[in-house]
Design goal:
It contains twelve helices and eight strands. By secondary structure, it is an alpha/beta fold. It folds into two domains: 8-238, Alpha-Beta Barrel (TIM Barrel); 243-281, no CATH class. An eight-stranded parallel sheet has the order 7-6-5-4-3-2-1-8. Bound molecules: 3-methyl-2-oxobutanoic acid.
Amino acid sequence: MGKKKLTRFDLQKMKTEGRKAVWITAYDYWTANFAEQAEMDMILVGDSLGMCIYGYSGTVPVTMDQCIYHCEGVRRGAPDTFIIGDMPFLSYQVSVPDAVLNAGRFHKEAGVDAIKLEGGKRVCDQIQAIADGGMLVMGHIGLTPQSSGQLGGFKAQGRTAETAKELIDDAKAIQDSGAFALLVEAVPPEVCRIIRDDLTIPVYSIGAGVLADGQLMICSDVLGIFQAFTPKFVKKYENLGDKTVKAFTDYAEDVRNSRFPADEHTYKMVEGELPKLKDLIGKK
Ligand code: KIV
């Protein structure tokens, strides 16, 4: 605790000096607090909360109110970490004024340091307007889950020369619109490397290989909590899902067999008070 929160200039310097930034998603107070204790450079309150917290099959149903609510808890858990709020589906696609107002809500109501939105050239007007409003915007290209219908599912992107070129053009347009950083998801490392080398702003990867300015992972994947599916790019550092089931099962067995609560988990009456109570209620 008490570390200095990074700024965009620190993140930019890290890129220049070839130091990798590491960040993770968090959706609640305690995960954010553990992330801060682990000295993450940034935390993303991703709209992946739709799947990881609410059990939706994708991110499309996620609302602004849900995102703000989770950002508030994360802010309290990680007061000294750079926090990015993720703009949910239809919070920025419909109009530029909507985008600015919703980006502003993340700042005013949840105290985030930046927002992230998905898409290339087609959201550059929104990026520019949010940046002109004095806010930090991160772009997100490659596999963009909010438009997974158009992409034909949760699939790797930029695997052909033509589609890779589109991503490279999108990345440049995003930088030119005033984004302070870019996230590239599920793209071959060679393509991510070209984008990183072309852009002056930091370029981060989730599933886009090691040749980026830093890496993002979903907390539920790192901890082995999310069990619905595991993308190729995920490395599970723990298996808390299985460990949690075991802890709950052990607890249930202890209760059913009267092993819990044991003596050490119970309060004692003040010495000599039990006989008095029995007298009072007429019991032996
Ligand atoms: O919502 C999220 O966590 C994200 C990542 C998948 C990049 O946007």
